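can u pls check wat happens w/ NAP
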Amino acid sequence: MQDPIALITGATSGIGRVAAAQMAAAGWSVWVSGRSRERAEATAAEVGGRAVQLDVTDPTSVAAAAATVGELDVLVNNAGISPDYAVPLPDADADLFRRTYETNVFGVVTVTNAFLPALRRSNHPRIINLSSGTGSLTWSSGPNPQFDFAQAAETGGRLAAYRSSKTALNALTLLYAQALAGDGVKVNALAPGLRATNLNPAAAERGGDAAEAAAAILDLARIPDDGPSGRLFSFDGSVAPW
Ligand SMILES: NC(=O)c1ccc[n+]([C@@H]2O[C@H](COP(=O)([O-])OP(=O)(O)OC[C@H]3O[C@@H](n4cnc5c(N)ncnc54)[C@H](OP(=O)(O)O)[C@@H]3O)[C@@H](O)[C@H]2O)c1
């Protein structure tokens, strides 16, 4: 496969920023997108990519970014928020869910649909959705749940909006993969593990190196044409349960 052209949403910090740096170091052409044009330009200059302003909740900015970018092989839907980190479920109202879903779910639909024409022109199109192990219903339920909603150390009783948004993203991953199979577009989700980023205090205080998660993004971008699609992968390359 020739060096791909990639775009990462929310690449101005955290996992997305490290992934952009790794892609650029590997010789890929990388679009560093961010909702702040200035920060996208600064990050692109630092990592060796090109900058484009893109707010996943703003369809006008997404359409403008798609027009600017033109050709694309790899779309990384990385932008995400977890505004309910400190909010237990009974206090998380519909507005909090709506705000979370605007970025983590609806934003992915807006961005994916906007870049589909370019991806369909690619010889090896790939979409990688940054999900979370906490969105896995299997890992959240018995008999030995890693992320029991009420008990899990990182999320106990909180993050219902965030976690369910990632469950929805997992479903979208499967449905897009099936819908786009005929176009050769591979669509997979990644559970990156807890990483030291600005996402929320648990990530910032107890997260591991974001580089390991970024490397897993590159692995999914390099999946061969006969490789898997419609899967949730853990950062170590194993298939995670929905
Ligand atoms: N870190 C972890 O432990 C962990 C675990 C599981 C999953 N994840 C997932 O990994 C992805 C990356 O998160 P991260 O940990 O790297 O956190 P992060 O450092 O907070 O990065 C998130 C990025 O998303 C951007 N963003 C937020 N809203 C946006 C919008 N409307 N339009 C465009 N960009 C937007 C942020 O931009 P601003 O800087 O402008 O806010 C930021 O660059 C997320 O989807 C997250 O859910 C992370």
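The chain has a mean pLDDT of 96.
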